Fold:
Amino acid sequence: MEIPAIVTARLVLRSFVPEDLAPFAALNADPRVMEHFPSTLTRTQSDALAGRIVQKWSDHGHGLWAVARLDDDAFIGFVGLAVPNFDACFLPRIEVGWRLAAAHWGQGFAPEAATAALHWGFTHLQPPGDEFVSFTSAGNTKSRRVMEKLGMTHDPADDFDHPAHPGWDGRRHVLYRLARHRWAALAAERAGRGASGRR
Structure:
């Protein structure tokens, strides 16, 4: 299927293109980016992941977008909506996730892109449970801050051990949720602040 493009204030969410593969591989080979994953990826593994990302759009009608800067179309990572490929007590759900190159951390790109992905998801999909979730290793404070900026909520009772990686130090994961009614209230609040600023 054709992957829809989304433009935000500073970013474009679009399909992967061949020119993205080299910077994507560099990102996936960076120990800083992959600190809270079981391992870094080789170029072959990274290219295969990009291929699966594109295929998921045809499989599910949603997926992950490549994220590029609007000013120069420089690839900085991915964001989007994914179906978890493991079993856990909170499933079935659709996850909102992101992975950005370290050079682009701390500039608000992750919440900007993820907000756009969630808006698309709530507008075009009927997610299971009428909510989206996000999860990460318990010690991944950077991603947890993004989840909190998105307005997602965390209940420690939802935390779980990732079943795909037994013995991994980062196996304990936290789960965050964003229900449609909360997303709508937050969107209305943002719109109200924007209208106030235009007066």
